[in-house]
Design brief:
This is Integral membrane protein, interacts with FtsH. By secondary structure, the chain is mostly helical. 87% of the residues lie in helices and 0% in strands.
């Protein structure tokens, strides 16, 4: 009698909230699984399979290019097919996670265990905070996301130029800029995937959407980790 909200609307709101919570749980579950698979792959390569893997890439240096370029193709494949073929996209996401784990293992020798731990803990903390902010905030982050994407493209081009200059100081500065960019992109991608789900949940595979979002957020986390690892690593070199 005193309920000003019609019962069907209340029921619809409860259903929408339950569906959104289920989607977010699934998406961040895929993100966590991807990070876990990368960590396990990296650990196994650095320990059990160290001699075999390092020996293989030493003898077949051209395979390093495949290891660097194939993740790009896998990312494009996941983005293109996630909503149409969730199972295939999930498999590609796991393969991508393994490949990044192998890459980290090959690079890990350059950094100390303390640097790797500090970078991982820092990137995890930043990622969680910004993902929560992007999911919960009512403020549109579209403008910030667009600026961050433009800045990322400019940074990639500038980094290519710095490959020829080989300036450690410029690399150090670029790492800080990249951290800021991926901090923004983490919040933006979290909000974007929430909005995509709310707008298209009845039209596409929810699992496919969760995999698509997991890919974007996983890449945000990975790039945060890489840039922070460079910062901590270069900081250690300066102290030495």
């Amino acid at each position: 009698m005193f309920n000003s909200t019609p019962e069907p609307e209340q029921r619809r709101r409860v259903v929408n909230e339950a569906g959104l919570n289920g989607f977010l749980t699934k998406m961040y579950g895929f993100v966590g699984l991807s990070v876990f698979v990368s960590a396990i792959s990296s650990f196994l390569v650095m320990t059990t399979f160290r001699a075999a893997v390092f020996g293989y890439f030493t003898q077949h240096t051209g395979m390093m290019w495949l290891l660097l370029l194939l993740p790009i193709a896998l990312s494009m494949g996941i983005s293109a097919s996630a909503t149409r073929n969730p199972t295939g996209s999930f498999i590609m996401l796991m393969v991508l996670s393994i490949m990044y784990g192998v890459e980290f293992a090959l690079l890990a020798g350059v950094y100390t265990g303390a640097d790797i731990t500090a970078a991982f803990v820092s990137s995890a903390a930043i990622f969680i905070v910004m993902a929560l902010y992007g999911t919960l905030t009512k403020r549109s982050l579209d403008r910030f996301g667009a600026h961050a994407m433009a800045a990322l493209i400019a940074l990639i081009l500038a980094s290519l130029i710095n490959m020829f200059l080989n300036s450690p100081a410029i690399t150090y500065i670029f790492s800080y800029i990249a951290v800021i960019i991926f901090v923004v992109l983490t919040a933006y991608d979290a909000q974007k995937m929430k909005n995509i789900y709310l707008n298209y949940q009845d039209q596409v595979s929810v699992t496919g959407l969760a995999i698509m979002g997991a890919l974007q957020l996983y890449l945000d986390f990975i790039n945060l980790f890489i840039q922070l690892l460079q910062i901590f690593g270069m900081g250690s070199d300066r102290r030495d």
